[in-house]
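JOB MANIFEST
job_type = single_chain_structure
chain_count = 1
residues = 348
[input]
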Amino acid sequence: MYNYESMNKNETYYANIITRYFAGEATPEEVRELSAWVSSNPENRQVFRESGNAWFRASESHYLFDPDMDVEWEAMHGKIEGVKEDIKAYPYSRTFRQISPSWYIRFAAVFLIAIAVGLLINLFISGPETLTVQTGEVFTELTLPDGSVVSLNQNTTFQYPEKFRKGQRIVALDGEAYFKVAHDPGKPFVLEHNNIRIKVLGTSFSVKTGAQEDNLEVVLINGQVAVYYENEGIDPQTLYPGEKAEVEKSGHHIEVSRNNNPNFLSWKTGLFIFEDETLENIVSVLNNAYNKKIILRDDHLRHCRMTATFDRQPLDAVLEIIAATLDLRIQSDGTTFVLSGAGCNHEM
Protein backbone atom coordinates (compact mmCIF):
# COMPACT_ATOMS: atom_id res chain seq x y z
CA MET A 1 0.00 0.00 0.00
CA TYR A 2 1.40 3.38 -0.98
CA ASN A 3 1.74 6.33 1.38
CA TYR A 4 -0.01 8.90 -0.80
CA GLU A 5 0.52 11.72 1.69
CA SER A 6 4.27 11.17 1.56
CA MET A 7 4.13 10.76 -2.22
CA ASN A 8 2.39 14.10 -2.75
CA LYS A 9 4.91 15.89 -0.56
CA ASN A 10 7.74 14.34 -2.58
CA GLU A 11 6.15 15.39 -5.88
CA THR A 12 5.65 19.03 -4.86
CA TYR A 13 9.10 19.30 -3.30
CA TYR A 14 11.05 18.20 -6.39
CA ALA A 15 8.70 20.01 -8.77
CA ASN A 16 9.55 23.25 -6.95
CA ILE A 17 13.30 22.57 -7.11
CA ILE A 18 13.06 21.80 -10.84
CA THR A 19 11.18 25.06 -11.37
CA ARG A 20 13.71 27.06 -9.35
CA TYR A 21 16.54 25.44 -11.29
CA PHE A 22 15.22 26.43 -14.69
CA ALA A 23 14.29 29.87 -13.41
CA GLY A 24 17.90 30.34 -12.30
CA GLU A 25 16.95 30.65 -8.61
CA ALA A 26 18.13 27.33 -7.17
CA THR A 27 20.75 27.45 -4.45
CA PRO A 28 23.94 25.35 -4.71
CA GLU A 29 22.51 22.96 -2.13
CA GLU A 30 19.31 22.57 -4.15
CA VAL A 31 21.34 21.92 -7.30
CA ARG A 32 23.27 19.20 -5.45
CA GLU A 33 20.06 17.63 -4.21
CA LEU A 34 18.39 17.83 -7.62
CA SER A 35 21.41 16.24 -9.29
CA ALA A 36 21.36 13.34 -6.83
CA TRP A 37 17.61 12.86 -7.35
CA VAL A 38 17.89 12.93 -11.14
CA SER A 39 20.83 10.50 -11.05
CA SER A 40 19.04 8.04 -8.76
CA ASN A 41 16.97 6.40 -11.52
CA PRO A 42 15.98 6.80 -15.21
CA GLU A 43 12.40 7.76 -14.34
CA ASN A 44 13.54 10.84 -12.40
CA ARG A 45 15.82 11.88 -15.25
CA GLN A 46 12.89 11.59 -17.63
CA VAL A 47 10.81 13.86 -15.37
CA PHE A 48 13.67 16.40 -15.37
CA ARG A 49 13.96 16.21 -19.16
CA GLU A 50 10.23 16.61 -19.82
CA SER A 51 9.89 19.38 -17.25
CA GLY A 52 12.69 21.27 -18.97
CA ASN A 53 11.08 20.83 -22.34
CA ALA A 54 7.78 22.09 -20.91
CA TRP A 55 9.56 25.16 -19.52
CA PHE A 56 11.06 25.89 -22.92
CA ARG A 57 7.74 25.44 -24.69
CA ALA A 58 6.10 27.88 -22.29
CA SER A 59 8.80 30.46 -22.84
CA GLU A 60 9.99 29.76 -26.39
CA SER A 61 8.85 33.13 -27.71
CA HIS A 62 10.66 34.97 -24.93
CA TYR A 63 14.05 33.23 -24.93
CA LEU A 64 16.36 33.20 -27.92
CA PHE A 65 17.97 29.74 -27.82
CA ASP A 66 17.43 26.14 -28.80
CA PRO A 67 17.61 23.91 -25.67
CA ASP A 68 19.46 20.60 -25.51
CA MET A 69 18.42 18.73 -22.35
CA ASP A 70 21.32 16.26 -22.52
CA VAL A 71 23.75 19.17 -22.62
CA GLU A 72 21.89 20.80 -19.75
CA TRP A 73 22.07 17.64 -17.67
CA GLU A 74 25.82 17.47 -18.20
CA ALA A 75 26.10 21.14 -17.30
CA MET A 76 24.23 20.64 -14.04
CA HIS A 77 26.34 17.60 -13.22
CA GLY A 78 29.45 19.65 -13.90
CA LYS A 79 28.28 22.28 -11.45
CA ILE A 80 28.02 19.65 -8.75
CA GLU A 81 31.49 18.29 -9.40
CA GLY A 82 33.14 21.70 -9.03
CA VAL A 83 30.72 23.52 -6.77
CA LYS A 84 32.08 26.44 -4.71
CA GLU A 85 30.48 28.74 -2.18
CA ASP A 86 29.96 31.52 -4.70
CA ILE A 87 28.25 29.33 -7.32
CA LYS A 88 24.91 30.68 -8.47
CA ALA A 89 22.60 28.16 -10.14
CA TYR A 90 21.70 30.09 -13.29
CA PRO A 91 21.65 27.26 -15.83
CA TYR A 92 21.24 29.38 -18.96
CA SER A 93 22.85 32.71 -18.06
CA ARG A 94 25.63 32.05 -20.57
CA THR A 95 23.47 30.75 -23.43
CA PHE A 96 20.60 33.16 -24.00
CA ARG A 97 19.43 36.73 -23.80
CA GLN A 98 16.45 37.26 -21.55
CA ILE A 99 13.88 39.71 -22.97
CA SER A 100 10.75 38.72 -21.04
CA PRO A 101 9.09 40.67 -18.20
CA SER A 102 9.11 39.27 -14.66
CA TRP A 103 5.39 38.46 -14.76
CA TYR A 104 6.03 35.97 -17.53
CA ILE A 105 8.69 34.21 -15.49
CA ARG A 106 6.21 33.81 -12.65
CA PHE A 107 3.60 32.41 -15.06
CA ALA A 108 6.10 29.95 -16.55
CA ALA A 109 7.18 28.85 -13.07
CA VAL A 110 3.59 28.04 -12.07
CA PHE A 111 3.10 26.24 -15.37
CA LEU A 112 6.25 24.16 -14.86
CA ILE A 113 5.26 23.18 -11.31
CA ALA A 114 1.97 21.84 -12.67
CA ILE A 115 3.78 19.91 -15.42
CA ALA A 116 6.43 18.48 -13.08
CA VAL A 117 3.87 17.39 -10.47
CA GLY A 118 1.80 15.80 -13.23
CA LEU A 119 4.80 13.87 -14.49
CA LEU A 120 5.65 12.67 -10.99
CA ILE A 121 2.06 11.61 -10.31
CA ASN A 122 2.01 9.67 -13.57
CA LEU A 123 5.30 8.01 -12.59
CA PHE A 124 3.82 6.84 -9.28
CA ILE A 125 0.50 5.73 -10.75
CA SER A 126 1.63 4.03 -13.94
CA GLY A 127 4.83 2.67 -12.42
CA PRO A 128 7.60 0.98 -14.38
CA GLU A 129 6.83 -0.58 -17.73
CA THR A 130 5.41 -4.10 -17.58
CA LEU A 131 7.31 -6.68 -19.59
CA THR A 132 5.54 -9.74 -21.00
CA VAL A 133 7.28 -12.99 -21.92
CA GLN A 134 5.42 -15.59 -23.98
CA THR A 135 7.47 -18.75 -24.40
CA GLY A 136 5.54 -20.52 -27.17
CA GLU A 137 7.34 -23.79 -27.81
CA VAL A 138 10.62 -22.67 -26.28
CA PHE A 139 11.83 -23.29 -22.71
CA THR A 140 12.95 -19.94 -21.30
CA GLU A 141 14.98 -18.82 -18.30
CA LEU A 142 15.33 -15.21 -17.24
CA THR A 143 16.69 -13.11 -14.38
CA LEU A 144 14.42 -10.50 -12.81
CA PRO A 145 15.56 -6.99 -11.74
CA ASP A 146 16.02 -8.19 -8.12
CA GLY A 147 18.23 -11.13 -9.11
CA SER A 148 15.49 -13.78 -8.84
CA VAL A 149 15.69 -16.50 -11.49
CA VAL A 150 12.57 -17.79 -13.26
CA SER A 151 12.41 -20.85 -15.50
CA LEU A 152 9.37 -20.89 -17.79
CA ASN A 153 7.95 -24.01 -19.37
CA GLN A 154 6.62 -23.97 -22.92
CA ASN A 155 3.30 -22.22 -23.65
CA THR A 156 3.65 -19.95 -20.63
CA THR A 157 2.97 -16.23 -20.24
CA PHE A 158 4.86 -14.29 -17.57
CA GLN A 159 4.63 -10.60 -16.69
CA TYR A 160 6.95 -8.55 -14.51
CA PRO A 161 7.90 -4.86 -14.16
CA GLU A 162 11.02 -3.43 -15.73
CA LYS A 163 11.86 -2.22 -12.23
CA PHE A 164 10.24 -3.34 -8.97
CA ARG A 165 8.49 -0.69 -6.89
CA LYS A 166 9.73 0.16 -3.43
CA GLY A 167 8.46 -2.33 -0.88
CA GLN A 168 7.05 -4.94 -3.26
CA ARG A 169 7.85 -7.37 -6.06
CA ILE A 170 4.73 -8.36 -8.00
CA VAL A 171 4.68 -10.70 -11.02
CA ALA A 172 1.95 -12.60 -12.88
CA LEU A 173 1.94 -16.10 -14.38
CA ASP A 174 -0.25 -18.13 -16.71
CA GLY A 175 1.35 -21.50 -17.35
CA GLU A 176 4.12 -23.37 -15.55
CA ALA A 177 7.29 -22.02 -13.96
CA TYR A 178 10.01 -22.62 -11.41
CA PHE A 179 11.07 -19.70 -9.22
CA LYS A 180 14.27 -19.18 -7.29
CA VAL A 181 13.47 -15.95 -5.45
CA ALA A 182 16.19 -13.62 -4.17
CA HIS A 183 15.88 -13.11 -0.41
CA ASP A 184 14.66 -9.64 0.58
CA PRO A 185 12.59 -9.50 3.81
CA GLY A 186 11.73 -5.84 3.23
CA LYS A 187 10.28 -6.48 -0.23
CA PRO A 188 7.98 -9.55 -0.38
CA PHE A 189 7.68 -11.37 -3.70
CA VAL A 190 4.06 -11.91 -4.77
CA LEU A 191 2.97 -14.11 -7.67
CA GLU A 192 -0.49 -13.42 -9.09
CA HIS A 193 -2.83 -15.62 -11.13
CA ASN A 194 -6.34 -14.20 -11.38
CA ASN A 195 -7.42 -13.80 -7.74
CA ILE A 196 -4.87 -16.31 -6.38
CA ARG A 197 -1.73 -15.02 -4.65
CA ILE A 198 1.52 -16.71 -3.62
CA LYS A 199 3.64 -14.61 -1.26
CA VAL A 200 7.29 -15.41 -0.50
CA LEU A 201 10.36 -13.74 1.00
CA GLY A 202 13.10 -15.85 -0.51
CA THR A 203 12.65 -19.43 -1.60
CA SER A 204 12.34 -21.83 -4.54
CA PHE A 205 9.08 -23.31 -5.72
CA SER A 206 7.17 -24.40 -8.81
CA VAL A 207 3.74 -23.27 -10.00
CA LYS A 208 1.42 -24.79 -12.57
CA THR A 209 -1.70 -22.82 -13.37
CA GLY A 210 -2.99 -25.35 -15.93
CA ALA A 211 -5.23 -23.53 -18.39
CA GLN A 212 -7.29 -26.71 -18.92
CA GLU A 213 -7.32 -27.68 -15.25
CA ASP A 214 -9.57 -26.71 -12.35
CA ASN A 215 -6.73 -26.25 -9.85
CA LEU A 216 -3.52 -24.28 -9.57
CA GLU A 217 -0.66 -26.32 -8.12
CA VAL A 218 2.17 -24.97 -5.97
CA VAL A 219 5.07 -27.19 -4.87
CA LEU A 220 7.55 -25.77 -2.35
CA ILE A 221 11.16 -26.92 -2.53
CA ASN A 222 12.68 -24.79 0.22
CA GLY A 223 11.81 -21.73 2.26
CA GLN A 224 8.23 -20.79 3.03
CA VAL A 225 5.27 -19.41 1.08
CA ALA A 226 1.74 -18.28 1.85
CA VAL A 227 -1.03 -19.15 -0.60
CA TYR A 228 -4.29 -17.21 -0.49
CA TYR A 229 -7.16 -15.63 -2.40
CA GLU A 230 -7.17 -11.87 -2.90
CA ASN A 231 -10.06 -10.11 -1.10
CA GLU A 232 -11.86 -13.34 -0.22
CA GLY A 233 -11.57 -13.20 3.57
CA ILE A 234 -10.04 -16.69 3.72
CA ASP A 235 -6.97 -17.32 5.88
CA PRO A 236 -3.72 -17.92 3.93
CA GLN A 237 -2.32 -21.44 3.85
CA THR A 238 1.38 -21.71 4.67
CA LEU A 239 3.52 -24.22 2.80
CA TYR A 240 6.72 -25.80 4.13
CA PRO A 241 9.42 -27.64 2.14
CA GLY A 242 8.14 -30.81 0.49
CA GLU A 243 4.51 -29.72 0.56
CA LYS A 244 2.16 -28.80 -2.26
CA ALA A 245 -1.05 -26.82 -2.45
CA GLU A 246 -3.98 -27.52 -4.77
CA VAL A 247 -5.86 -24.25 -5.17
CA GLU A 248 -9.36 -24.19 -6.66
CA LYS A 249 -9.53 -21.53 -9.37
CA SER A 250 -13.28 -21.09 -9.34
CA GLY A 251 -13.91 -22.04 -5.73
CA HIS A 252 -12.58 -21.03 -2.35
CA HIS A 253 -10.61 -24.04 -1.21
CA ILE A 254 -6.88 -24.68 -0.76
CA GLU A 255 -5.74 -28.25 -0.08
CA VAL A 256 -2.25 -28.72 1.40
CA SER A 257 -0.51 -32.12 1.36
CA ARG A 258 2.87 -33.78 0.96
CA ASN A 259 4.25 -33.78 -2.58
CA ASN A 260 4.73 -37.38 -3.65
CA ASN A 261 5.33 -36.64 -7.33
CA PRO A 262 9.05 -36.96 -8.14
CA ASN A 263 8.45 -35.64 -11.67
CA PHE A 264 6.90 -32.24 -10.93
CA LEU A 265 10.05 -30.54 -12.29
CA SER A 266 10.89 -33.02 -15.06
CA TRP A 267 10.07 -30.41 -17.71
CA LYS A 268 13.00 -28.38 -16.34
CA THR A 269 15.48 -31.02 -15.15
CA GLY A 270 14.94 -33.66 -17.84
CA LEU A 271 14.98 -36.34 -15.13
CA PHE A 272 12.05 -38.79 -15.05
CA ILE A 273 11.60 -41.35 -12.26
CA PHE A 274 8.80 -43.89 -12.65
CA GLU A 275 8.26 -46.47 -9.91
CA ASP A 276 5.60 -49.03 -10.82
CA GLU A 277 3.75 -46.20 -12.59
CA THR A 278 0.79 -46.63 -14.93
CA LEU A 279 1.40 -45.96 -18.60
CA GLU A 280 -1.41 -43.42 -18.50
CA ASN A 281 0.46 -41.31 -15.94
CA ILE A 282 3.80 -41.81 -17.70
CA VAL A 283 2.32 -40.48 -20.95
CA SER A 284 0.82 -37.48 -19.13
CA VAL A 285 4.21 -36.54 -17.64
CA LEU A 286 5.99 -36.95 -20.99
CA ASN A 287 3.40 -34.89 -22.87
CA ASN A 288 3.87 -32.00 -20.43
CA ALA A 289 7.67 -32.17 -20.42
CA TYR A 290 8.25 -32.58 -24.16
CA ASN A 291 5.22 -30.56 -25.32
CA LYS A 292 4.18 -33.39 -27.64
CA LYS A 293 1.03 -35.43 -28.09
CA ILE A 294 1.37 -39.09 -27.11
CA ILE A 295 -1.77 -41.18 -27.56
CA LEU A 296 -2.61 -44.65 -26.28
CA ARG A 297 -4.69 -46.20 -29.05
CA ASP A 298 -5.92 -49.13 -27.00
CA ASP A 299 -7.73 -48.33 -23.75
CA HIS A 300 -6.30 -51.28 -21.83
CA LEU A 301 -2.76 -49.84 -22.25
CA ARG A 302 -3.59 -47.13 -19.69
CA HIS A 303 -3.26 -49.67 -16.89
CA CYS A 304 0.06 -51.18 -17.89
CA ARG A 305 2.76 -50.45 -15.33
CA MET A 306 6.52 -50.07 -15.55
CA THR A 307 9.54 -48.90 -13.58
CA ALA A 308 12.18 -46.82 -15.35
CA THR A 309 14.42 -43.77 -15.08
CA PHE A 310 15.21 -41.42 -17.95
CA ASP A 311 17.77 -38.64 -17.69
CA ARG A 312 17.77 -35.97 -20.42
CA GLN A 313 17.06 -38.44 -23.19
CA PRO A 314 15.23 -37.42 -26.39
CA LEU A 315 11.58 -38.40 -26.54
CA ASP A 316 12.17 -40.84 -29.39
CA ALA A 317 14.63 -42.80 -27.25
CA VAL A 318 12.28 -42.77 -24.23
CA LEU A 319 9.37 -44.10 -26.29
CA GLU A 320 11.53 -46.79 -27.87
CA ILE A 321 12.43 -48.11 -24.40
CA ILE A 322 8.78 -48.03 -23.29
CA ALA A 323 7.70 -49.82 -26.48
CA ALA A 324 10.39 -52.49 -26.08
CA THR A 325 9.49 -53.04 -22.42
CA LEU A 326 5.73 -53.35 -22.96
CA ASP A 327 5.78 -54.87 -26.49
CA LEU A 328 4.19 -51.86 -28.17
CA ARG A 329 4.27 -50.32 -31.63
CA ILE A 330 4.96 -46.64 -32.30
CA GLN A 331 3.49 -44.58 -35.12
CA SER A 332 4.54 -40.94 -35.46
CA ASP A 333 4.19 -37.94 -37.75
CA GLY A 334 6.79 -35.92 -35.80
CA THR A 335 4.44 -34.20 -33.37
CA THR A 336 1.95 -36.94 -32.53
CA PHE A 337 2.99 -40.40 -31.29
CA VAL A 338 0.51 -43.27 -31.20
CA LEU A 339 1.25 -46.32 -29.01
CA SER A 340 -0.60 -49.54 -29.74
CA GLY A 341 -0.28 -53.29 -29.24
CA ALA A 342 -1.06 -56.01 -26.76
CA GLY A 343 1.03 -54.42 -24.07
CA CYS A 344 0.49 -55.94 -20.67
CA ASN A 345 -2.87 -57.25 -21.92
CA HIS A 346 -4.47 -56.07 -18.69
CA GLU A 347 -8.25 -55.96 -18.91
CA MET A 348 -10.38 -54.12 -16.38
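[summary]
Residues 4-126 form one domain.
The first strand starts at residue 130 and ends at 134.
exit_status = 0
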